[in-house]
Write a structure and sequence with these properties.
The protein is an all-alpha fold. The chain is 83% helix and 0% strand.
């Protein structure tokens, strides 16, 4: 039994040392997932979960604008976030202005 544990530990150590290369596409998707998660987390903290859901939809719609031929595709995710933030904040500001005007009448 002790030999089996030693063998398994050695195997696990070898697995942890082996670097499995990931394709550029996989890396790009991973960066996008992290960017979206950070965006949703920030909107949730600032505006709440309901608004984060709407903002996530804005972000996903902005992905359609992503330039896949960009020489630096990892920066494209930040551009998606900027576009989604702009769209989201325009909606929030417009809603707040309309609500404020309605309350003053």
């Amino acid at each position: 039994m002790a030999q089996a544990l030693a063998r398994n530990r050695s195997y696990a150590e070898v697995i942890n040392v082996i670097e499995i290369p990931i394709s550029p596409c996989e890396e790009l998707v991973s960066l996008g997932e992290r960017e979206l998660a950070a965006f949703i987390r920030t909107v949730t903290e600032l505006f709440g979960a309901d608004q984060a859901h709407v903002a996530a939809e804005d972000w996903l719609e902005s992905v359609a604008l992503l330039d896949c031929a960009s020489p630096r595709p990892s920066h494209s995710w930040r551009l998606v976030t900027i576009a989604a933030t702009t769209q989201f904040l325009e909606r929030v500001v417009t809603r707040d202005v309309v609500t404020k005007d309605a309350c003053q009448e």
